[in-house]
Amino acid sequence: MWRDVIEALACEYHVVAPDLPGFGFTESPARGQYEYTFANLAKTIDQFTDQLKLDRYAIAVHDYGAPVGWRLAVAHPSKITAIISQNGNAYEEGLSQGWEPIQTYWNDPSKANRDALSDFPTPASIKWQYLEGKRHKCGSTGCLYVGRGSYLSTWDGGYSARLIVGLRHQRCEVSRISGLFSGVSAAVARRMGKA
């Protein structure tokens, strides 16, 4: 999804594009070994940026990455130089009708409601999102893009919908994050001299 954007930006910028744990080309720690919540995903990415000694950076967020990015911006507004969001909701009203089975599970985490999610995401949607279009230079084994043309292989080939289970607790934070995000937007605008 971001391959062409990364390639274009890498001509002039240092680009670091990690997949979230359990997504894309990452390993998928078993449930119980890793807490799949937006807060913990943000903590993981925060530690990742610390390891790379990234003191100031712009973030591009999409889909599940958006709540992770919002948390990074709220926790470290002085580090964030810009936010680029594509399909990055910070409010519950942005969830489409397709989320109803997931919301049902969030409200009632019974085995029956979890089993109703056994085909989410669908094989067709995974294929479309991750296999169509330009292939990664590292081929079918999967990789993580870092910097100007470097790839690090980190993918075990597994994809798990268990994120739904861990993320069900996060919907209660949506209102709080939504309110905090408006404050971060104002702070970033002030730093950029636009407010």
Rg (CA only) = 17 Å
| Helix percent band | 25-40%
Estimate the global geometry from the Cα principal axes.
globular
Given the structure, what is the number of helices? 8
Trace the largest sheet across and list its strands. 1-4-5
Per CATH, the architecture is: 3-Layer(aba) Sandwich
Low-pLDDT windows of residues: 138-189
Q: Hey, roughly how much beta strand do the residues contain?
A: 5-15%
Return the domain count.
1
Mean pLDDT: 70
Distance between the termini: 33 Å
CATH secondary-structure class: Alpha Beta
Keywords:
single chain; 195 residues; alpha+beta; Rossmann fold; three-stranded antiparallel sheet; two-stranded parallel sheet; 8 helices; 5 strands; Haloalkane_dehalogenase
Task: Give your account of this protein's structure.
This is AB hydrolase-1 domain-containing protein. It comes from Vreelandella sulfidaeris. InterPro entries: AB_hydrolase_1 (IPR000073), AB_hydrolase_fold (IPR029058), Epox_hydrolase-like (IPR000639), Haloalkane_dehalogenase (IPR051340). The structure is a single chain. With 195 residues, the protein is α+β, with helices and mostly antiparallel strands. It has one domain: Rossmann fold. Strand 4 and strand 5 form a beta hairpin. Helix 3 crosses helix 8. The chain is globular, with a radius of gyration of 17 Å.
